[in-house]
TrEMBL record:
<protein>
    <recommendedName>
        <fullName>Serine protease</fullName>
    </recommendedName>
</protein>
<dbReference type="InterPro" id="IPR009003">
    <property type="entry name" value="Peptidase_S1_PA"/>
</dbReference>
<dbReference type="Pfam" id="PF13365">
    <property type="entry name" value="Trypsin_2"/>
</dbReference>
């Protein structure tokens, strides 16, 4: 991967279409529980519905809703080449291919898409389980920096690699969990970054938190790179503010399991 940071491979550029008419661009990424499990694609609900999840009103003045999504995957064994995969968002019976969270309200702005990714695409997921390389349990306090990795205005750093935007944690994380899953960051993010991965990324010096004991350990490790996957960015609280919502990683486990189990049931039920 040369000198390209590993998280840069993980966020994927997406475009939403009504038939052949492009409606919007955005961001998304793959997740897996660990290195032994299959990948599931994650993005914001409003990316696939074209509606504000809080009001259910159309985002576009044209009232258009997407029925196809194009995901730009990395090509296996090639750093600077991509494979565009076009997928329908709805089955022939009108039911969505994407999955909403099974126990949270309908305005939860996160969905999963689970299809059979072919061998022609490379998969670089964020791993959900602690102890994996994306889960360093970094101690994070209000005003400390986080990275929002995505495609503002459809822009990229080069080719289809994402842009890293720097934000700041805008609250304490003590009470953030699957029952209270939204937290705020202060970041000048813009349209197109909906669906971006949010991580805390450190080089050389960082703190880790033992969640069982509450003990914080200070590490100094020159040139060591660590990161902790925090969740998925879903947009600003309003157009006048740089405060943005992030849906915490804790809700992704249940959504992931639903997407995997339903996919397997449907696959095995086919004649």
């Amino acid at each position: 991967m040369n000198n390209i940071e590993i998280p840069s491979f993980k966020t994927l550029y997406i475009e939403m279409f009504f038939n052949d008419v492009k409606l919007a661009s955005g961001s998304g990424f793959l997740i897996a529980r660990n290195k032994e499990t299959r990948c599931v694609f994650i993005t914001n609900k409003h990316n696939v519905t074209g509606r504000n999840p809080d009001t259910n009103k159309h985002i576009s003045s044209t009232l258009a809703e997407p029925n196809f999504i194009e995901i730009h995957f990395h090509k296996p064994n090639f750093v600077n080449e991509w494979v565009m995969v076009r997928l329908p968002l709805y089955r022939d019976d009108g039911s969505p291919y994407w999955y909403e969270h099974p126990s949270l309200p309908s305005n939860t702005d996160v969905v999963a898409l689970n299809l059979n990714w072919g061998d022609d695409v490379a998969c670089y997921p964020y791993y959900l389980e602690e102890g994996q390389m994306d889960r360093e349990s970094i101690d994070l306090r209000p005003s400390e920096t986080v990275s929002v990795i995505g495609f503002p205005f459809g822009l990229s750093s080069f080719d289809r690699f994402p842009i890293w935007s720097t934000g700041f944690l805008a609250q304490d994380m003590e009470r953030v969990n699957k029952d209270n899953p939204v937290f705020l960051i202060d970041c000048r993010a813009r349209q197109g970054q909906s669906g971006s991965a949010v991580i805390v990324y450190r080089i050389g010096e960082f703190r880790t938190l033992n969640k069982s004991t509450g003990e914080v350990t200070h590490h100094i490790a020159p040139n060591r790179k660590v990161w902790d996957f925090l969740g998925i960015y879903s947009g600003r609280v309003n157009t006048e503010s740089d405060l943005g919502r992030v849906w915490h990683i804790s809700i992704l486990f249940e959504l992931y399991d639903l997407a995997v189990s339903d996919y397997e049931i449907r696959k095995n039920s086919k004649p």
